[in-house]
Amino acid sequence: xxxxxxxxxxxxxxxxxxxxxxxxxxxxxxxxxxxxxxxxxxxxxxxxxxxxxxxxxxxxxxxxxxxxxxxxxxxxxxxxxxxxxxxxxxxxxxxxxxxxxxxxxxxxxxxxxxxxxxxxxxxxxxxxxxxxxxxxxxxxxxxxxxxxxxxxxxxxxxxxxxxxxxxxxxxxxxxxxxxxxxxxxxxxxxxxxxxxxxxxxxxxxxxxxxxxxxxxxxxxxxxxxxxxxxxxxxxxxxxxxxxxxxxxxxxxxxxxxxxxxxxxxxxxxxxxxxxxxxxxxxxxxxxxxxxxxxxxxxxxxxxxxxxxxxxxxxxxxxxxxxxxxxxxxxxxxxxxxxxxxxxxxxxxxxxxxxxxxxxxxxxxxxxxxxxxxxx
Amino acid sequence: xxxxxxxxxxxxxxxxxxxxxxxxxxxxxxxxxxxxxxxxxxxxxxxxxxxxxxxxxxxxxxxxxxxxxxxxxxxxxxxxxxxxxxxxxxxxxxxxxxxxxxxxxxxxxxxxxxxxxxxxxxxxxxxxxxxxxxxxxxxxxxxxxxxxxxxxxxxxxxxxxxxxxxxxxxxxxxxxxxxxxxxxxxx
Lengths: 375, 187
What we know:
The complex is a heterodimer. Chain A has helices at residues 9-20, 34-46, 57-69, 80-96, 123-128, 144-161, 171-175, 241-256, 259-262, 283-296, 314-323, 337-345, 364-374; strands at residues 3-8, 24-27, 50-53, 74-78, 100-108, 114-118, 137-139, 164-170, 177-182, 265-268, 275-279, 301-306, 308-310, 326-331, 350-355. By secondary structure, chain A is of the alpha/beta class. Chain A starts with a strand and ends with a helix. Chain B has helices at 21-35, 82-88, 111-116, 126-134, 140-152, 157-167, 173-184; strands at 9-16, 39-46, 54-62, 76-79, 97-100, 120-123. A 6-stranded mixed sheet of chain B has the order 2-3-1-4-5-6, sandwiched between helices. In chain B, helix 2 links the parallel strand 4 and strand 5 (97-100). The termini of chain B are far apart. At the A-B interface, strand 1, strand 6, strand 9, helix 10 and helix 13 of A face helix 1 and strand 2 of B. Strand 9 of chain A pairs antiparallel with strand 2 of chain B.
């Protein structure tokens, strides 16, 4: 029997985490993500999991990395200011290939900005927030149901590819309540563990598909976890160009070469469209309403809903740009994803930005007016 | 360009933090979605303060799936603080419904707006009734849910009661149901 609930996005996320097998949360409360920590502080002990409130976000992400290496699916939840503090350890988790999930419920920014209002200022922080070359995975929910489903998927991708995954939500989706259906059966990914003799095991082997089995501390394997460039045994080897290049290219390619498995987006009414609206997260709801009103008034408009903000759906958008005159991204910042769109559309379509900051969701009638200016 | 592509009803409830404004929105949304089997979305906005700041909740109820989750122009505006009245009345729909607690709000100041737009006004002394009849000022929000249920008929009595029992702290169900019935019987 599926179970029906009328709950907040943040609660749906926390419930999704438990269903995905998360058994550790380390965090520092911050609006508008706090309900995730609140729910898990009660729910985790009931399933023999652990919850810890740390002194700040720097130690919070540190605790999550440690917990993950002890063999437990682990997560934290935060908002922009906390995510900024986590960036150093995000890079460490990328380099050390530590699976974990970071939920970022975005609010008005920069700095502490607007705690109780929505924003999407962290899109590029997810992409480039930590230093160096890396390929993040980020998934953006547009409904309470998706906040549940995408959290489960986030854990699965994180464990499969041994990377931090960001669930890039926003205040609207975090605090909104809708009906959701909890499925009875949820597919979860079990972390692949090594089965060879500990004497022969190379924890950071330069493997073809990019992802190695991951032993936990205490399993009997020698594991050295470092942010320094390391050889296949995991020991610092920092002046050999080949070792560095092999390692970083493997880390990047294990995501890029598996785009097809990771990237997700939905096209609606694009076949005959003159204008296609593009969005991720809460503004998708404004876009859907705009297209509904537009179509009922005879306008040929469609939309592309981006589920995985990273890796960016490049091939899908490049193809779309060849068939459509105008693309318009709707985002709650002064223009971040629009730059990716311009890069990928390569002049095949005109790229426009509908930008809204201040904390409120873009209004369908305002988007419609911009479209009418174009046509 | 017409925007009336569906029959979504929009409700906005405004007051100040601590009155239970948001809980009343949750109850109405839950009643519609889980017990009347319609579609509903509830959102809220509040300041950083725990109590005393402005507080607002919005509920959309429809027979179809709801895309845009925010109220654009409410059919029903429920007001529990004078500040909220001044802030929110201007985009109430023509011939819309305004429900206020007259002990907290003075509707006289917007009488021009009310007359011009043919607004239906209901004055329900929910805070006074909650205090005098139930002995608990904090159930004023549930008295108001009773009023809203009766006047708007957007949720059924049965669904409202189930949603209340499902949402209030254990042990307070009876008092809250009494509060609901008190509100339901005002008009």
